[in-house]
Write a structure and sequence with these properties.
Number of strands: 13
Strand content: 25-35%
Radius of gyration: 23 Å
Strand order of the largest sheet: 5-6-7-3-8-9
């Protein structure tokens, strides 16, 4: 039995002169919340389209875990690739009955999925009366109707207000707790950091990073420093090997250390006559790591 729901090997796709994907490989662990992260035009939607069989790759291959064929795999996948599109004057139950008929899965799970997405109390309300967040949750309910093993979401919080984003985030976490593997494509770093266990970073069709989100957050190489003369501190830090990504953040200076610890840094600064008034190690955010990756990817 495979430990991964999908393995991808060397996917490439070109649209005329635009290389949308270039030899991208990755694997999605079973039971994970897997984020495909990148700015617009990075290849996220193209990747999902290929994996769902709606776009044909130019090169490369992929296999869906324990399934013998792509058709069998797709029967166990729920997906949302576009803006939710339901009949505006029909209520949630009637809209889901139409979806169930198209999927050929019957109506028995409609109450269950509406309760799962917290729309049971609004089951008789017309779709046109729903907020954007409610519409997105109804789309997720439709994707869950056939009781899939994998849920694929393309930009699930795009356009939502903070409350709608929080509702969808909490829903994704609940779905993952039920053992469903969730694959999310997004450009929203904060949301990926909050919900995902694993992440793939794409830029202009190239893979920049793949690994666990905790691996990024716990690198622990980011520090904030304080001193009464920031200009002198900044100049001194720029002369020390192993000090990277030096930036000012208000009354502090933020750095990353490579090949040295804070004790070594303190010692070298003391030799220059600088005694820090503030030195705090912080977990690196996914955003700061992403910015480092994309900056190096552009150079």
């Amino acid at each position: 039995m495979s430990e991964h729901v999908i393995r991808v090997d060397g996917l490439s796709k070109k649209y005329k002169s635009i290389q949308a994907l270039n030899q991208v490989s990755f694997s999605v662990p079973k039971g994970s919340v897997y984020g495909i992260l990148g700015p617009n035009g990075s290849g996220k939607t193209t990747t999902l389209g290929i994996l769902l069989g709606v776009i044909k790759q130019d090169q490369g291959a992929y296999s869906w875990g324990d399934y013998d064929s792509p058709h069998q795999a797709r029967q166990n996948i729920g997906a949302i690739l576009e803006t939710p599109n339901f009949y505006p004057y029909l209520n949630a139950v009637d809209n889901l009955k139409i979806t169930a008929s198209i999927k050929g899965c019957g109506n028995t799970r409609i109450p269950e999925v509406l309760k799962q997405v917290n729309l049971w109390q609004r089951k008789k309300s017309a779709f046109k009366t729903y907020s954007l967040g409610m519409k997105q949750r109804l789309a997720i309910a439709a994707a869950l109707l056939a009781n899939p093993k994998v849920l694929v979401l393309d930009e699930p919080t795009n356009g939502l207000d903070p409350r709608g984003i929080a509702e969808v985030r909490e829903l994704i976490l609940r779905i993952a707790q039920d053992g469903i593997t969730v694959i999310i494509a997004s450009h929203m770093l904060d949301e990926i950091e909050k919900v995902c266990t694993d992440v793939l970073v794409l830029q202009k069709g190239e893979k920049l990073f793949e690994g666990q989100v905790s691996e990024v957050l716990n690198q622990g190489s980011q520090f904030k420093l304080g001193y009464h003369d920031l200009d002198l501190l900044e100049k001194s830090l720029s002369e020390i090997n192993g000090v990277l990504n030096l930036t000012r953040a208000g009354t502090r200076i933020q750095i990353h250390l490579e090949g040295m610890g804070p004790e070594d840094l303190n010692k070298q600064l003391a030799e220059k006559g600088i005694w820090l008034s503030y030195l705090v190690q912080e977990n690196q955010s996914l955003e700061s790591y992403f910015l480092q990756l994309t900056k190096s990817g552009q150079s």
